[in-house]
């Protein structure tokens, strides 16, 4: 495909990926709000703890080979089927380990409910292996419209089941049923919409070729997963499930926003970059566009969310969840830097330099674990604040190799995102003043959101921000192309 075809395919894929994120995460957001009002913080904390162990096992099942299938330009049916059968075997081994070790985990955290919950929820490992292959097929072909239908259908069905069970007093089991049903429905819908089927094909040579690229990503994911969850493990052990519930809930709000925007851009960006990996200048342009576009949307949302946190939590989750507000605000600062993290890492992977990716993960996690070790002595809020300092350090570490690979330094990247950051902080300072008026939470929240949007986009248009201009031109091109086809 030439550059024009790739741009058209990327924009179309980005639209459907964003629609998938917006639709599914929007519905999921509503579902989570209802569940949070029906389920106690300690029950949420228990499921959050179980999810850590399942996520760690999922790294072995899904990571590395999945990305290698997308990155390999001449991947064939033997590659896909071999990875599928390997993932199924690994899923079985991981499930057996979790099943056997469940009593030990329950004893360590002094929570006997962990045993049945962990054993049941761990069955998602088998579905995750299948879903990862189907997602790789979709990503390679940039057919994200299919993910839109599967994700939307799954979140509606699983959300309904979760809410009904929570309403009838099933507590943590409602969350288990929701997650299981979601994975099952995603796998079922993709089975009918994605043409790929595993064949009776298996090749060790094929796996060795993929492993040469994927093993570094696998180790990187393990290291990253360990750091991302070690905080929760300490909180669960030192404090209690309720505090873990507040910590986890505080992260969910900014995570939801970032995964909608940044996740959509990056999931489309990697296969697109892989197609142009031989043209470094073109890769640089695409990386820069991804960073600038992500930052333009994510910075104001993170700043705004941090400011409106208290009235938002009061209205949506009720006062019982107010202890999560400080964690939410700190998480906003940490998640705001994600565009720089992911765009740089996607470029490195797309260029086939998973060796650099692994080195970066090791360096980042040494730094982050050092920060965590220091913060443990100062309490739970210091642990949360450590996430922000780790994010700042990681953003520099992730960008460093691309100074040589793409001639795109960290300083250049900061200059590119600085207009969006400064405007976001100014907007946040203005809408913060509404908290001094002592109005009802609903009125305060409505004014803050409305005024914040008007200020941010109004000034961006007045100052002719590059990103906003680009988006408006691109949207006009899409409308013109659609009119021509009609």
UniProtKB/TrEMBL annotation:
Its main location: membrane. Signal peptide: none annotated. The keyword rRNA-binding does not apply. The chain crosses the membrane at residues 46-70, 82-105, 117-138, 147-167, 173-194, 215-236, 256-275, 287-307, 366-397, 417-435, 442-463. Pfam families: Polysacc_synt_3. It is a multi-pass membrane protein. It is found in: Cell membrane. The keyword DNA-binding does not apply. Keywords: Cell membrane, Membrane, Transmembrane, Transmembrane helix. Belongs to the polysaccharide synthase family. PANTHER family: LIPOPOLYSACCHARIDE BIOSYNTHESIS PROTEIN WZXC (PTHR30250:SF10), PST FAMILY PREDICTED COLANIC ACID TRANSPORTER (PTHR30250). This is Lipopolysaccharide biosynthesis protein.
């Amino acid at each position: 495909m030439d550059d024009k075809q790739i741009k058209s395919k990327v924009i179309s894929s980005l639209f459907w990926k964003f629609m998938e994120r917006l639709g599914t995460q929007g519905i999921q957001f509503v579902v989570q709000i209802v569940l949070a009002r029906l389920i106690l913080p300690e029950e949420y904390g228990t499921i959050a703890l179980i999810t850590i162990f399942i996520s760690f096992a999922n790294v072995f099942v899904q990571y590395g080979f999945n990305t290698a299938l997308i990155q390999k330009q001449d991947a064939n049916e033997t590659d896909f089927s071999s990875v599928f059968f390997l993932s199924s075997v690994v899923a079985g081994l991981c499930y057996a380990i979790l099943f056997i070790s469940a009593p030990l985990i329950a004893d360590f955290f002094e929570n006997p409910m962990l045993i049945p919950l962990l054993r049941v929820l761990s069955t998602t490992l088998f579905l995750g292996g299948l879903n990862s292959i189907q997602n790789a097929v979709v990503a390679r072909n940039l057919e994200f419209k299919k993910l839109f239908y599967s994700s939307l259908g799954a979140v509606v069905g699983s959300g309904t089941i979760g809410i009904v069970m929570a309403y009838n007093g099933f507590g943590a089991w409602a969350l288990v049923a929701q997650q299981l049903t979601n994975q099952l429905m995603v796998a079922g819908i993709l089975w009918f919409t994605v043409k790929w089927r595993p064949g009776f094909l298996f090749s060790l040579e094929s796996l060795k070729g993929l492993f040469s690229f994927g093993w570094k990503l696998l180790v990187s994911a393990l290291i990253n997963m360990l750091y991302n969850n070690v905080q929760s493990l300490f909180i669960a052990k030192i404090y209690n499930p309720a505090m873990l519930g507040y910590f986890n809930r505080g992260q969910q709000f900014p995570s939801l926003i970032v995964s909608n925007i940044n996740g959509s851009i990056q999931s489309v960006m990697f296969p697109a970059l892989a197609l142009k990996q031989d043209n470094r200048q073109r890769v640089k342009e695409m990386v820069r566009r991804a960073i600038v576009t992500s930052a333009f949307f994510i910075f104001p949302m993170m700043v705004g969310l941090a400011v409106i946190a208290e009235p938002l939590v009061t209205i949506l989750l009720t006062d019982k969840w107010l202890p999560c507000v400080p964690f939410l605000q700190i998480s906003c600062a940490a998640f705001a830097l994600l565009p720089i993290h992911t765009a740089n890492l996607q470029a490195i992977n797309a260029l086939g330099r998973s060796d650099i990716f692994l080195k970066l993960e090791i360096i980042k996690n040494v730094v982050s674990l050092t920060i965590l070790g220091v913060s443990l002595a100062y309490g739970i809020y210091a642990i949360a604040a450590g996430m922000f300092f780790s994010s700042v350090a990681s953003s520099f570490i992730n960008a460093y190799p691309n100074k040589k690979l793409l001639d795109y330094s960290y300083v250049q990247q900061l200059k590119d995102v600085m207009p969006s950051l400064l405007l976001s902080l100014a907007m946040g300072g203005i809408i913060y003043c509404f908290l001094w008026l002592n109005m009802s939470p609903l009125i305060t929240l409505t004014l803050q959101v409305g005024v914040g949007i008007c200020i941010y986009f109004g000034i961006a248009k007045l100052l002719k921000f590059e990103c906003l201009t680009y988006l408006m031109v691109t949207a006009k091109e899409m409308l013109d192309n659609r009119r021509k086809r009609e």
